[in-house]
Amino acid sequence: MNLTIHRGTHEIGGSCVEIDSGGYRVILDMGMPLVNSYGSRFDSKACGKMSGIELVKAGVLPDIRGLYSWDKGKRIDALFISHAHMDHYGLMSYVRGDIHCYLGEATEKLISISNIFTGNEVSTSSTVYFKNGDHVNIGPFKITPFLMDHSAFDAYAFMVEAEGKKLVYSGDFREHGRKPGTLNRFLSGVGVGADILLMEGTNIGNSKRAQKSEVSVQKELESAIGGTGKIVFVVQSSQNIDRLVSVFKAAKNQGRNLVIDFYTANVLNILSRYANLPNTLNGFEEIRVFYPRGLSTMIADKGRKDLLYSVKNRRIKREEIAQNPSKYVMLVRPSMWREFPRLGDIEGTTVIYSMWSGYLNDLSMRSFLHEIKKRKMNMISIHTSGHADIETLKALVNKMRPKNIIPIHTFKPECFPSLFSNVVSVLDGVEILI
Ligand SMILES: [Zn+2]
User: Fold this and answer.
1) CA of 374: how far to CAs of 99, 175, 242, 406, in Å?
2) H helix or E strand, kind and range, residue 12
3) pLDDT one-digit tens code per residue, 346-394
4) CA 102, 103, 107: angle at the middle one, nearest 5?
5) How far does residue 151's CA lie from ligand 1's centre (Å)?
6) Residues of the chain where predicted confidence (pLDDT) is lower than 70
7) In angstroms, what is the span from residue 317 Cα to ligand 1's centroid?
8) Residue 65 — φ and ψ, nearest 5°?
9) Ligand 1: distance of its center to the CA of 50 in Å?
10) Cα of 320 to ligand 1 centre, how many Å?
11) Ligand 1 centroid vs 415 CA: distance in angstroms?
C-alpha cells in the first residue's frame, strides 16, 4: 500500500490524501486551502475565475491523474469526504462525474444547504452514503468510517485496510464536545497497532492548555446571559450544531427565547432527522425565526421561497423584539449589523463572540465591529476549539499505539516529535510505501 499526502503535511486546510494498492487508488478528502503559499488567507473567489487546468498549474488543485473531469486516463476508484467543512470538501466539484463520492448522508445535506446560502456551489454527480462503522470495499481496500466528535456535524475518521496493513486517518476531531463517547467507540473499532496514524494537529504548537468542554461553554453563556437585563446577541456559525445546542440551552435556562435566522432554522430542521436537536418542526416553542432582509431577498431571488416558508410559523418581527428585548437571545451574523437600528435600544447590550478569533480579521467583520463600537455594545468571547487539545491527542496515541504517526492538518509538524515517539516526517506530494 502506498500513501501520498497531496496537501496537509505542513498546513491546516486543503486536506487531500491518496492511497494506492494493486492498481486501485482512493482519495480521502478534497479540501479547499485556507492559506495561500505566502501563508495569508486563501482567496477562494479568485479561484472560481480560473479553469481547472490552470488551478492544477497554480498548485491549488493537487496534481492527481485520473481525478478530474478533463483527465480521461485511468480514473481514481473512489473519493471519501470526512465532513462538511470547506477545507475538507471544497474542491470536489472538479472531480470526474464517474467517480463515486462516499460521504455521510447528513454531510451531503449540509453541503447542499451551504451551496444555497453561501453561493459556494460545490457538488459531485455521484454520491454514495456510508454508515458509521459499516465498511466499504473498493478493490483491495476495506474502508471503515467512524463518527467523531467535531465542530462539524456528521464528521468521520477512516480506517483503511489492504495488503494486511492498516492506515487510520483521524480527520478532524476532539473529545470535549457533545459526543465524547465517539472517541472510545472509534478506538475500539480500529484496535491497537495500526501501521500508520495520520493524525490532525490543529492545536499543536498553539496552546498547551486543555480546551474547555462544550458544557463549560454553555455554563459561561448562561452566566453572561443571566448577568444582563438586556437583549444578548451571539455571533456563531449556523453549522456548529454543538454550539447552537449550548446557546439554546443557556437561553432556555435563563428563561429566554432564542431568535435564529431562517438559514439556521432550516439547518436544525434538516439535521433533526439524524439527531435529537432543537428544531421548529416538533415543539421547542422557545425558538423564534428572524428574516434578515438581505438574506431573504437573496433566497427568494434564487427561487427557493420554500426555505422562507418552511419555518414561517415561528416568525418574529423586528417590532416584537424591540418591544421586549430582554426576553431574547439573538444569533446575528456580521452582515446583520444593518438590522440593529430597528431592534430598539441596544446601547450597552452584550455581543457574545463564539467563533475562532481569526475570523475577526475578515473584511465582512469590520463593519460589524465598527457598528458594535459605535453603539457602545460590549463584546465578550466565549468559545472552545473544534479540535483536540494535546492531552486528547496523547491519550489517543497511548490507547491506539500506532507503529508510525504522520502529522496532518497542522502548521507545526515539527512539534510532533517532542510529544510523540515514532513520528514520520513527510512532504506534500511525496509517495511513501507502507
Ligand atoms: Zn473540520
Assistant:
1) 52, 39, 31, 48
2) none
3) 999 999 999 998 889 888 898 899 999 999 999 999 999 999 999 999 9
4) 155
5) 7
6) none
7) 34
8) -75, 145
9) 26
10) 37
11) 21
CA of 23 to the centre of ligand 1 (A): 30
225 sits in the region (left: phi over 0; alpha: psi -120 to 50; else beta) called alpha
85 Cα–ligand 1 center, Å:
5
C-alpha of residue 330 to centroid of ligand 1, in Å? 25
Residue 162: strand, helix, or coil: strand
Name which of 66, 186, 64, 78 is nearest 128 in CA terms: 78
Give residue-wise pLDDT tens across range 211-256.
999 999 999 999 999 999 999 999 999 999 999 999 999 999 999 9
111 C-alpha to ligand 1 centroid (Å): 13
Q: State in Å: Cα 409 to ligand 1 middle.
A: 10
Q: Do 298 and 115 touch, CB atoms closer than 8 A?
A: no
CA 222 to chain centre: 25
Residues 164, 191, 7, 120, Cα dihedral to 10°: 120
Within a 10 A sphere around the Cβ of 106, how many other Cβ atoms?
Answer: 21
CA angle 305, 308, 314 (to 5 degrees): 155
pLDDT at 122 (0 to 100): 85
Query: What is the rounded distance in angstroms from the CA atom of residue 54 to the CA atom of residue 52?
Result: 5
pTM over 0.90: yes
Q: Quick check: 82 and 29 in contact, CB under 8 A?
A: yes
